[in-house]
Amino acid sequence: MTSDHPITATTINAAISELWIAGSDDCVEVSPTHAIARRQIDQSTLRPGAFVSGPAQFSLADAVLWYLVFGVLDRVEPMALTSELSIRFLRPAQGTAIWARADLEKAGRTSVVGTVRLWMDEADDRTVSTAQGTYALPRG
After folding, report:
1. Does a structural domain hold residue 2?
2. Which of 43, 102, 111, 123 is most deeply packed, by most CB within 10 A?
3. 4 inside domain
């Protein structure tokens, strides 16, 4: 890692658009200690009652942890893989966009551990779910 941290949300979004065609999340902010991502809500992410589905929340939590790994490593590392991820749903999620912030808990040679908080819409700070996960780093 360097003190002049060049990885940016723009760099990550450009790489993800090439690497992962199905990706629907945007990295909004990244640093060596946190990442923020957003997903616009559409009909494919909704359950009856206009609630954002659990799988959509889980997917965003996983993606923002991946972006955190890029911030920790100071590069896009496509082969960093989810090793473990758990989520707890706290309240119904309704709105036009879901946001997630991953904060670094521990970075080591072989893995990165982070905690994620998810909330709806930029102005609403009530947590809808929380997750914790580990990403395994590739060897070498």
Report:
1. no
2. 102
3. no
Q: Spell out the per-residue pLDDT of the chain, length 140, in tens.
A: 444 658 999 999 999 998 877 767 999 999 999 999 999 998 888 888 889 999 999 999 999 999 999 999 999 999 999 999 999 999 999 999 999 999 999 999 999 999 999 999 867 789 999 999 999 999 87
Tell me how far apart the alpha carbons of residues 69 and 48 are, in angstroms, rounded to a whole number: 34
In which domain, by residue range, is 13 found?
9-136
Report residue 5: phi and psi, to 5°.
-90, 95
How many domains does the structure of the chain reveal? 1
Q: Write the CA distances from 126 to 15, 113, 123, integer angstroms.
A: 31, 23, 9
Q: Is residue 1 part of a domain?
A: no
